[in-house]
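Q: I'm building a small set of examples for a reading group on sequence design. Run inverse folding on the following structure and report the sequence directly after it, with nothing in between.
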């Protein structure tokens, strides 16, 4: 069966159009899969942080009121940027709301990173302890 030339050309154009559409959709799927994986990793990190805070609160490791009062007293004497952050009132003339928020954001990121590293180190220590125990049992 021989198709007219016009029909062949329109079919080829249609195939090309569908292939381009398929390629775009494949790229979107790849992007969403990668983004989904990133979100899952971020959620795991946040879950570890929440777990850390809950365990810390349950163990009573949160600062006491006397410790908070001591920090307030130190902050009252201070005139630097950090005392401005703790007091919620500017002790330093260069402290602006934007600067305060930026410093707070950076400190939060450092805190989260440090906590995640500490959690990972604790898990590694537990794994090493279990491995040492297993090896010592095998030798006996």
């Amino acid at each position: 069966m021989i198709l007219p030339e016009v029909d062949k050309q329109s079919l080829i154009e249609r195939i090309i159009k569908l292939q381009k559409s398929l390629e775009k959709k494949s790229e979107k799927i790849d992007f969403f899969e990668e983004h989904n994986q990133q979100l899952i990793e971020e959620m795991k990190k946040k879950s570890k942080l929440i777990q850390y805070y809950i365990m810390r609160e349950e163990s009573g490791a949160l600062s006491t009121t006397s410790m908070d009062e001591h920090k307030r007293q130190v902050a009252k004497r201070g005139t630097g940027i950090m005392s401005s952050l703790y007091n919620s009132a500017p002790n330093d003339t260069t402290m602006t709301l934007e600067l305060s928020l930026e410093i707070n954001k950076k400190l939060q990121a450092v805190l989260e990173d440090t906590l995640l590293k500490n959690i990972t180190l604790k898990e590694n220590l537990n794994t090493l302890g279990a491995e040492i125990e297993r090896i010592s049992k095998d030798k006996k």
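The helical segments are 5-58, 65-77, 81-87, 97-139.
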